[in-house]
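quick one: magnesium ion bound model?
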Amino acid sequence: VSRQADMFRTRATQDGLTGLPNRSEFTGRVDSLLHSPSRGHVAVLFIDLDGFKDVNDSFGHGVGDELLIEAATRLAAEVRDSDVVARFGGDEFVALLADCSDDEAVEVAERLRASLSAPYRVGHRDVVVSASIGLARPGADDDAESALRNADLALYRAKESGRDRVSVYEPAMHASALRRLDAAARLRHALAHDRLTLAYQPIVDLRTGDIYAMEALLRFDHEDFADWTVTEVIEAAEESGLIVPVGGWVLDAAIGTLGEWRRKGIDVRMNVNVSARQLEAGGDLALQVENALICYEVPPTSLTIEITEHQLVRDLEHSTSELARIRRLGVRVALDDFGTGYSSLSYLPRLPLDSLKIDRDLTSRTGSSRDTVPAVLRLGRDLGLAVVAEGIERPEQLSLLRAAGCTLGQGHLLSMPLGERAALELLRSSGRIPLPAPTTAPALDPSGAPEAAEA
Ligand code: C2E
Ligand code: MG
Ligand code: MG
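yep, here:
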């Protein structure tokens, strides 16, 4: 065989960067092992580095490549000679573990995860990434393709439940993946046929009952979505990328409604949820917001963009600069579901924010020994941010929140999300929500300002 032919063969079976087997070599090896009559228990692992994209974006591809080579070396060092580690491209690695029990497979996967999560010394700096791993145990009927698909579904679950973990494939994952695809297809259809609507939930001044703003919430009032919750559909939209056009529709519709209400003499603020994917898409969200405000003749100060905490921290640098652009228009920015993400308090002062929305999980602990709302209120005050308590459901919560000096709130107790007509009706009539008199008398100071009560 000529040297050139040798080189071609190597190229056809190897990944050029790491020298590991490539995809076609790996699937061939899996298939032949699965078809061999003497095969024992086998495991297939799908491995993905968490945060690798950030490394590439921040330090350049050279550093990224170095990290991948080091990751490949670590993986190869952790498995036996009879096992196969391969790279599928990007930061996607796979492993085939021959002849191992269930326990051994999980143990090896955990070892790989730990090894990949140790700091990397690349490009004269220390870089930390973690790894998510999906593990599948192919059965008698499986081939390489189905084994890999199952491992990939398990990987999806590992990422979804917070990354840096191993997740083992279960058949139910298949059903939920199909369900997500189904939801995305229905949503695509609804968007194309103009069947999306918005509901509006008041954000209320807890001192007076005045409506401070309305939050626009996506609704699917169609029998196609009878079996789906909003959260499920939004998740499917996030995953498929459909959230970008759907979020564009929401923004346009919400600002359109604001414009219509203004023409009827109603001046109210509107909060609109956006996904981090809308900030990333290169779709220029700031320009889109600006155009809609001009088109519907709405002042920028009437609009607040809400972004969920855990989405924001994922791609902090880019999201921050995009949000800062939006804020420079005069639009406000709220951090949604505060207290549920992996917030590091150190980044909070640097974010371009106007308010925090306390997640309803935290609100529900009001008055218990695990009540962190007073601490968040102090934090908000120190940082000059308004604080909104979400998900107020019970009268005791409301009075405790008021006593703690929380001045803005939202929740079923105050008002359910309303259809457009009911929302307009409410704004037109009184523009306020009747509040019960405080039940537990807060220690009011002489000026009667609830904020000062806890000082
Ligand atoms: P979110 O932005 O935190 O919105 C508040 C959610 O809590 C809404 O659920 C609302 O109906 C619900 N809620 C309000 N008060 C209460 C209460 O007292 N108790 C309880 N249990 N729930 C309450 P919804 O409409 O199902 O929306 C869920 C999430 O979906 C939203 O959470 C938001 O993250 C996302 N979402 C909704 N519309 C949009 C949208 O247009 N774009 C994007 N990107 N996300 C959206
Ligand atoms: Mg929200
Ligand atoms: Mg929220």
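The pocket of magnesium ion (ligand 3) is lined by residues 336-337, 357, 359, 390 (CB under 6 Å).
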